[in-house]
Every structure is written in C-alpha cells, then in structure tokens.
Amino acid sequence: MIDLAQSLAQGASVGESVFFWILAPIALGGAIGLVLARSAIHAALMLAITMMCLAVFYIMQSAPFLGFVQIMVYTGAIMMLFLFVLMLFGRDSKDSMFETLRGQRFFGVCLGIGLAALLAAGLARAVSGLAVANDPAWATGAQGNVEAIAEALFSTYLFPFEVVSGVLTVAAVGALMFAHVAKKGGVRGQKVHSRERFAPGVYPGPKPGPGVFATSDSTATPALLPDGSIEPESLSEYVPPRQLTAAEAAPKHTEGRES
Amino acid sequence: MNDPIWLMLVKGVLVFVVLVLLVLFTIWFERRVVAIMQVRPGPNRNGPFGLLQSLADGLKLAFKEDAMPRTADKIVFIAAPVIAVTCAFTAFSVIPFGPEVSLFGVETALQLTDFEVSVLVILACSALGVYGIVLAGWASGSAYSLLGALRAAAQVISYEIALGLAVLAVFFQSRLLSTGAIVDAQAEGLPLSIGGFELTLPGWYFIILAPSFVIFVIAMVGETNRAPFDLPEAESELVAGFATEYSSLKYASFFLAEYVNMVTMSALCVTLFLGGWAAPFPNSWWPGANEGFMPLIWFFGKVLAFLFFYVWLRGTLPRLRYDQFMRLGWKVLVPISLVWLMVLAAMNIGLDTGNGLPTRIAFAGGAAIAVMALIFFWPSRKPYEDPAEPDTGMGGFPVPPLDLAVPPNPRALKELEPARTGAAPDEDAAAATTEKGEE
After folding, report:
1. What is the reported pTM?
2. Does A153 touch chain B (CB under 8 A)?
3. Chain A interface disruption, residue of B78, B239, B417, most A CBs within 10 A
4. Cβ separation A146–B433 shorter than 8 A
5. DSSP codes joined into one string, B247-264
6. What confidence tens digit (pLDDT) does each residue in A202-213 have?
7. Beta bridge mates, B107
C-alpha cells in the first residue's frame, strides 16, 4: 500500500487512484472490524474482506497471478477452513472477557503498540528509498507475470521454498497424528447390531416421527393434540381405537439397551 | 482487449441475458429430460412444450412471502445469496464464445474480457461462491442449514483440489493461463503416424489429457453441488440443506446461482478440453465453419451436451454417502491427478529437450505405477465365511422362532369409547365397509 501511495504521488493513472482510495478504507475497515467484532465468524468475514482488497491491490499493480492466487488460496481455502472450524463452535459462543493472567490486557495493549511501531518503522525503512518501477519487465510483455514468479520461486528461492513445503507437510502430518484417535475394539457388525435391537426388553420397531405426541406409532393409537385431547381426524373408521395399558404405555427402552 | 466502453457494457449485458435465458432453459430442459427418463410427460402446460414453466416458477417465487427466522444473523443472511449470485455471474465473463467478429462496426472477440491469467478468474469465483452457501447455512440459525453448510465447505475444498490439478494439466500442456489462448492452442491438429499411416487427430485436450478430462468432469459435478454429489442440500436428509430457511427471491437466487454455476463449469470444460468454440470436424470439411458467428452454434451445442450430461447423472445415479464421497475425492481423484501430472511433466521435458530418456522413464514409471495401483487397489470382496458360533436363525440374524405363538390381539384389551357408536367395533367397521361399497 505504501508503494501504491508513492506511485500515486508520482502520478499514477486516474483509475488506479480511484480504486486505491475506494479500497484502502475498506481494507483498513476490515482490519479494524476484525479486532472489534464480537462474534468469531464476523471477525473471520472481516479478515476475508481485507484479503480480497489486498488481492485487488495486487491486480492493480500488474500482478494478476498473485492477486487471483491470493483469492483462491487465502480467501477461498484457508479462510474457508477457519469458517469450518468456527461454525462448529456454535453461533452464540462469544469470547470470554475474563482475564486469566493479572494485567493481561494492559501488557497486551503495550506489546501490541510496540509491535505495530516496530513493523511500521521496519516497513518505512525498507521502502523509503525505493524507486517505483512504472513498467516492470513482466508488465511490458518481455517476460510474463507467471514466468517471472516461477523463475524467482524455483531458482533464487528454491531452497527456502522446499524447506517451507517440508515444514508445512510435517506440521500437517503432526496435526493428523495428534487428532487421530484409535478405534477401541473392533467394528461392530450388522449381526451384532441386529441382535441387540431384537434383544428382550428392547422395542425393535421404529420410533414415532418427530412432532408426534404419541406413546406408540401403532395405527390403533389416536394422535393427541398439544393440549392432550384426542384428535378425532386421526381415528380410523376401520381400526377400533384403544387406550394403552399402563404396561404398554411405559417407556419401551427405545433409546437403546437397558441401563 | 481494447474495446470501447459502450461495447464492453453491451457485451456485459449480453452475457447476463444469455446466462439468465440459459438458466430458464436448463431448468425446463432438466425437468423434461428427467421426466422422459422416468416415463412421464413433465411440465407441458405453460407455453409451447412447457417452455415458459421456469419463467412462471420464477415469477411465483418472486411474489412469495420473504420470511427471515428470528435467530438469523440479519446482515449475513441477506448477503449470502448476493455473494452466491455475484460470483456465479462474474465467472462467466472470461469464457470465449467465438472468434473475432465485427460487432456494431468494431472488430472484437466474442468474449467479455480476457487477460493473461483469466482461467484463474473462474477458479477464484467458484472458490468465493462457496462463501454464499456456507454463510447462508450459518446465518440461518438452524441445525439443518448448518449441517448443509459444513458439508458444502468440506466438499468444495476437497473437490477444488482435484479440479485445480486437472486444470493444471491443461496449463502444463498449453503453457497458457488465458481462456482465449487455450482455445487457439487446441486448434492445431495432432499429427500421428501409426505404421506409416498418417493421421491427424484433433488437438483438443480431452484426447491428450484424457485422465485430467475425466477427473475434471467428476470434480466439476462435485464443485457445483449437483446429483449425485448434492450432499449440501440432500433433501431426504437435511430438508433443503443450506437453503432450508430461505424463501422468495433469496431462495430463487440460490437456485439461479446453482444453474449459472452448472453452465459456467460446462463452458469451462468445453473451453479447456473440447476446443472451445471450434467446430467438431476438421477445418477442411467446411472452411467457413470457424468464422463469423457460426462458432456460437458449436459452443452452445457443446455446452448443452454437458448440461444434458448433468441431467443424465441426476436421473441415473443415487446420492453418494458422505464418507464414500470424501474417499472418492481424497483417495482416488487427488492421487491419480498427482501421478498423472508427474508423468505429464516428465514427458514434456523429454519432448522439449529432444532427449528420449525422460520420456521413456516417464512412460515406464507411469505404467509401473498404474500397474501397482491396479494390483493394490483392485476392488475385492471378502468371501463369505460360515459363522463360527452356532446361530439362532438365518446366518446369525435374529428371526422369529419357528414355533412362534401369535400373541393375543391388543385391540381386544380395552375399547376407548365403546358408547360412542353404541355398536361393537367390528360391526361398526363392517357397516362402514358396506356404506363404502354402496357409494
């Protein structure tokens, strides 16, 4: 973004500056929203917005490949995995505001400001002396955007690239190892399940459907209205209705084996 | 691509109109074709052959009440269908319909836009389109919707990998990432000499990259959430999955997005593997077949063939179980794609350097890996073993005893309202039967 601001100062095209001044506030707003959002999903969505804006910045700066890969990999895959995990927590879970360490918030704010200052200073030093290349080699068509990235990745930075890919693979396998739970005992087959279902004392028939206020799903059992009275429509002309005896109305252990 | 702005606007509107019309047509087409497959007439009331049925359905949906659950997250609930539709329509902007033509006096390609990496636009849009589904499921505040959203997230991430690897093979072969250029690259024939007999195969990539083509077609069905991979909206398990709580135009938007995605994925497959807008016969047969507006016929013909394939799948195959579906994606499609990419890369290097050794290594290695995979993963069935322990019934399953005494009829226990009719229930039933018979 600092690059972009400089190039604007040096007279970038009108379209570029229009897009910059529209998208830069959105990107910053997304970043601030990420910190302030109460719900974890909202925070993740804010982060996705910031990433999309960054991708458009890349495309504006003649790096379309990088921009679209940013959208596909970060916004499309990694944020989607985040969402996947966050959704499993349930909608109403919020961050607890309880301080587990005393003075945690104070030190957190101090360290945060320190980190921000450090990053800003480092970035400013790194880009202060840079001249903005208005038409780099890959934009003029001498060497394509994709070829330029590929050459940098697979010649100059080959070793770091391979090391990072190895480390990532090890991390993924490690996460799998930690999350893997060995199955206890063998797989219970169909026969075992079937025997348990028909064991004495267990009601083998299907349970009444959800929303049915009945103790049994027999056609002879009248349906009950929410107030407990009998729904006359449910009485068949051909099947004489009957009340269940106390023994029949008792729970039939339909939830599984007797415990 | 240096079109004047007014021409770009015209093209944008044209793409939009074509997509909407194709969606209306596809819904009707799907219902009619499935009906024919199931030996019934299908929609045939509105308009000729029932062609206006989807238009009527769309109007009806627009006038329905727009309900929002109390537990819904309002902003995200409204944003989700917008995201889904926007991404679906945007993806179509880079599909080439035809060659350069003269449109309103300006020479221009029949394509909204094209640039260096335009295939990635479609992949990025399909990746973002999932947000619509996932957020819809989450924001609805309903268990069915959430389950649908979780399935959608897992499904699209896993099938995107297989899809991306299949597309990578096209990039390997053509060394291009632009849709228009990939279509042009397929125009050259593939000279082949078998025993001195010269033969020119069409240069379409589905011949050279047959494994990638098959994987792409499978992954494309998974990516668009269509049967037999329609697990996010499995109506017999999850009501309507992620769309359970949606109604009216918001529901229609999801419907629209799904069908636009179907069209886009078909068009992408045609562009990458089936020669795009090129005519399906050698240029010498009919020299003018690839000029002017003629290619529109070939392009839409191929896309319609794919849409028929989608419908055919839906009419034929039952929905996969979730674990089988994941196993197919991760344990079959992805490994095969990876091995095939390695073989392809080695072959290309061998052909480039003019050195036959890497090619031979690639062929031998590929063949060896294929044979090993066949041996290891040959589907086998465990032979039936007689049960070791004594069984009570057929093959160990509990069955009623052979000397089963039928228990007394529970209806004889106690009548509910014996005084209601003043007659014994049996006589009542008999009377009802005779009444019915008289009617």
Report:
1. 0.74
2. no
3. B417
4. no
5. -HHHHHHHHHHHHHHHHH
6. 766 666 555 555
7. B102
